[in-house]
Amino acid sequence: MLFLALAAGFAQQSQQSSPMVEHTRAHTRLTEANPPGKREKLDLGTLYIPAGLPVRPPLLVFVHGEPWISEVAAQRNRMASISVAGAAGSGAYAKLFDDPQRFLHLVHEAEEKSHLRFGTLLLGGWSAGCGALRQILKDPPSYARVNTVLCIDGVHTDYVEGHSGPMESALTDENLKVWLQLGHDAILGRKRFLLTHSEIFPGSYASTTETADYLLKELKVPNHAVLKWGPMGMQQLSEAARGKFLMMGYAGDSAPDHVDQLHSLPVFLRLVR
């Protein structure tokens, strides 16, 4: 079901599924918790406010994954959070924000109910949730309001020929334009952009490895091979950085490798503070 969810919004063709288990790496998990603080139901998702936040605290809007994970990450990084989850695939998440005013309305609603004014606005998503990020960032006022974007193993697009090639495949660029814009702005220091990918190869649409390679080529940012431990027992294989743009590639082509990246959210947040 995980990989079928990833496929939503892209060409529906035969798909080569990755192994669903992997026993070599540790695949550490956060301990499920209900961190103390206030919660408010919003038009979309739930606002979480930990105790002891600074004046004009940062706000994380995070899409997909269990809400408690983004709440734990927000508490550890001393910020408020809005968790949006439950849609079936990237296309469904994108449709949640078909109304270009919905994202800014959501932030305004959170401020009204919390009686706070948020400072830095971080927009994050994992897997299919990155479809919502793409849709939000297409709206110029929403794009202008966002300071930082965390895209965790979720940038996909279609193949030009409708299927992967025997060697390097040509990718359609429509779903990648906003990521290129964000990358350029991050390199110039106008935004902060963290992009991660695994080695999962879906088969019927472009993998996060392929889209990361495409973006690095277009942005003219060199990718460097590394070999070091990351959070949750992950093994980092590559890194590319310039200005406030950072891309990190991790080993693994199984579902646990994909979930590792979601549970690394508290660490990824520290990298963009």
Counted by DSSP, the helix tally is 10
Number of strands: 10
Judging by the overall fold, what is the CATH architecture of the largest domain? Answer: 3-Layer(aba) Sandwich
Mean pLDDT, nearest integer? 92
Give the strand line-up of the largest sheet: 1-2-4-3-5-6-7-10-9-8
SSE pattern: HEEEHEHHEHHEHEHEEEHH
Please outline the helices and strands.
Blueprint: H1 2-7, E1 38-41, E2 46-49, E3 59-63, H2 67-76, E4 80-84, H3 90-95, H4 102-114, E5 121-126, H5 130-137, H6 140-145, E6 148-152, H7 177-187, E7 192-197, H8 208-219, E8 224-229, E9 235-242, E10 245-250, H9 255-263, H10 265-271
Parallel strand pairs: 3-4, 3-5, 5-6, 6-7, 7-10
Antiparallel strand pairs: 1-2, 2-4, 8-9, 9-10
Helix pairs in contact: 2-10
In short:
The protein has helices at 2-7, 67-76, 90-95, 102-114, 130-137, 140-145, 177-187, 208-219, 255-263, 265-271, and strands spanning 38-41, 46-49, 59-63, 80-84, 121-126, 148-152, 192-197, 224-229, 235-242, 245-250. With 273 residues, it is an alpha/beta fold. β6 (148-152), α7 and β7 (192-197) form a beta-alpha-beta unit.
